[in-house]
């Protein structure tokens, strides 16, 4: 597990990115904590600073790609720090795809970024999409790794903050059993 980037942790705390309650995550799992990185990305100076710090962990990158919505601004800022092009993938009929004329080229060296990694499902989809174009994945970067360092993508993976966050399947969720109202603060509907 990577050491915690104290500067990043301090910025996320100051901006109240960590929320507590009863949340349905993008993965469908339930948790008592949620990282609302949109609060980071509404602050251009802080988000640019953290994306710049993350970009320094990668080299020989031609393209930065992220999943919508969490990875859109992040891909832009990391690409800006690296001086390369950026794109984002989005869901169409439930499947991650490139739209808006975005393409990746065979042999292009791609860094995939995501604001928060829990199960890594969205990142895996973007990796598969990029490889479908013949691109080479050089790494994965995140602001927060909620997996406690267990997420693995078969390429170098760096996160600024690594945390262990408890999550449960809906049928096993103690918060559901206790009748605590469920909220879905992310970009996908419940």
Q: Would you mind describing this structure in some detail?
A:
This protein is an alpha/beta fold. The protein has a single domain (6-177), classed as Rossmann fold (3-Layer(aba) Sandwich), CATH 3.40.50. It contains 6 helices and 9 strands. The chain has helices at 6-14, 38-41, 44-55, 70-82, 121-132, 174-177; strands spanning 18-24, 30-35, 63-67, 85-92, 95-97, 109-117, 136-145, 157-162, 167-168. The strands form 2 sheets. It has a 6-stranded mixed sheet with strand order 5-4-3-6-7-8, sandwiched between helices. Helix 4 links the parallel strand 3 and strand 4 (85-92). Helix 3 (44-55) packs across helix 4 (70-82). The longest helix is centred in the middle third of the chain and has 13 residues, at 70-82. The chain is globular, with a radius of gyration of 16 Å.
Element-by-element helix/strand order? HEEHHEHEEEHEEEH
Query: Biggest sheet, strands in spatial order?
Result: 5-4-3-6-7-8
Query: Structurally, how many domains make up the residues?
Result: 1
Task: Round the mean pLDDT to the nearest integer and report it.
Answer: 91
Are there runs of 5+ residues with pLDDT below 50, and where? none
Question: Architecture, according to CATH?
Answer: 3-Layer(aba) Sandwich
Q: Termini, distance in Å?
A: 32 Å
Q: How would you classify the quaternary structure?
A: single chain
The largest sheet, given as strand count, sense and whether it forms a barrel, is: 6 strands, mixed
């Amino acid at each position: 597990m990577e050491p915690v980037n104290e500067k990043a942790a301090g910025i996320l705390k100051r901006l109240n990115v960590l929320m507590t309650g009863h949340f349905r995550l993008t993965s469908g799992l339930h948790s008592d904590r949620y990282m609302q990185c949109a609060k980071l990305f509404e602050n251009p100076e802080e988000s640019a600073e953290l994306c710049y710090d993350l970009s320094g962990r990668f080299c020989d990158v031609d393209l930065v790609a992220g999943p919508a919505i969490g990875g859109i601004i992040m891909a832009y800022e990391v690409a800006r720090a690296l001086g390369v092009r950026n794109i984002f993938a989005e869901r169409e009929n439930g499947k991650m795809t490139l739209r808006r004329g975005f393409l990746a080229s065979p042999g292009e060296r791609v860094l995939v970024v995501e604001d928060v990694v829990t199960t890594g499902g969205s990142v895996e989809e973007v990796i598969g999409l990029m490889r479908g174009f013949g691109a080479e994945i050089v790494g994965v970067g995140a602001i927060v790794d909620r997996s406690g360092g267990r997420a693995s993508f078969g390429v170098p993976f760096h996160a600024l903050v690594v945390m262990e966050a408890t999550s449960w399947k809906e049928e096993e969720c103690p918060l559901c059993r206790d009748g605590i109202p469920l909220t879905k603060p992310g970009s996908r509907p419940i």
